[in-house]
Amino acid sequence: MKKKESTLINMVAAMLLITLIAGFSLGFVNELTLEPIAKSKLDQKVNALKLVLPVFDNNPVAAMILLKVENVKDSVEVYPAFLNDAFVGAAVIGTSEKGFSGLIKLMIGFKPDGTIQNIAVLEQKETPGLGTKIKDAAFINQYRDKNLAIFNAKVKKDGGEIDGLTGATITTRAFSEATQMAYDEFIKDTAFISKSKN
Amino acid sequence: MAAIINQKENFFKGIVKENPVFVMLLGMCPTLGVTSSGFNGLGMGVATLFVLLMSNIVVSLIKNQIPSKVRIPAFIIVIASFVTIVEMVLEAFMPFLYEQLGIFIPLIVVNCLILGRAEAFASKNTLFSSVLDALGMGIGFIIALTLLGAVRELLGSGSIFDIKLVAENANTFILFILPPGAFIALAYLAVLFNKISIKTS
User: Fold this and answer.
1) CB of B77 within 8 Å of any CB in chain A?
2) ipTM greater than 0.85, yes or no?
3) Beta-bridge partners for A108
4) For chain B, which residues make up each domain, given as ranges?
5) B 36-65 residues with CB below 8 A of A?
6) How many Å apart are CA A41 and CA B114, to the nearest integer?
7) Closest-CA distance of chain A to residue B133, Å
8) B65 contacts in chain A (CB < 8 Å)
9) pLDDT tens-place string over residues B107-158
10) pTM for this entry
């Protein structure tokens, strides 16, 4: 077959056809993957909730409340957990923009008295092998079962009680900041959160 | 018979003689960016192979219908569509890999290896040769990225494919998982690769 000449009509027709086909096929794939993407995001959230919260029997995702906090851009997501209608704790999304590569997003599970149950890292872009160690159990265990009212969650360099990660002090600081933010929020509104059963 | 031998060479040239990373030094952005571990390199390599294969197939099929003055934008649209499909499929069915590769998936669009093969090979050759070319180049890219990732992971984190070889708190060459380590490791691997491939051929 002979190659098409580069006349204006040929060029416009070729580009129109290609963009049309590309557009339709992308729309088709988008339609196909829309549901699995939403499902995998929800699964991730539910898994994180199961990890950080004490045993619960309600649906924290449905009971999610948004709270407006001072000094923070977005509202904070709080997932209250109940077992037999009794408040057993809540997971708070704590964020910090001060990570080595920007946003660090954590989910921190609190018992009703404000003691940390567990922490899950939801989003981070830290250096692989250095900052990403915030996901390791060895690091997170430093925060578990601690109450920030009496425990200073700052890095040792800053006068706190947390062993910073080698080569990732900035990441550790951001992690502590996000945890502290979530704690402050939880303590401020415990009364409201514990009554917010849907 | 001659045709068969040529096709065989056509396939293998991407793996050794014209290896996209170690010999042609194409597609450096994902090569240096994601290879902090063996698995990341492998995942990126497979994603690139898929896009390369699909774009080579489509480009070689439509090569006569594209007026040569608009061929580059036409190729880019084809490539970008496949990259977007890969991104959506990965996010839906392999969220862990999607999270690891992050920003580098959309950047496959500007991987000059893919546009390079579309422009230099698929737009001038038959469908069959283009498929072999894409497979050869893609496998060469996978080998290079996995090798680079494995070497950096071994030196930088003391593990290989996530299997820890040293104690948890042992000191490793952190440099190798940081950006400068990528350049250093790539340079030495390229030297080694070229030395061996010259000797054997």
Assistant:
1) yes
2) no
3) A92, A119
4) 29-200
5) 36-37, 40, 62-65
6) 31
7) 22
8) 4, 14
9) 888 888 898 888 888 888 888 889 999 999 999 999 999 999 999 988 887 8
10) 0.78
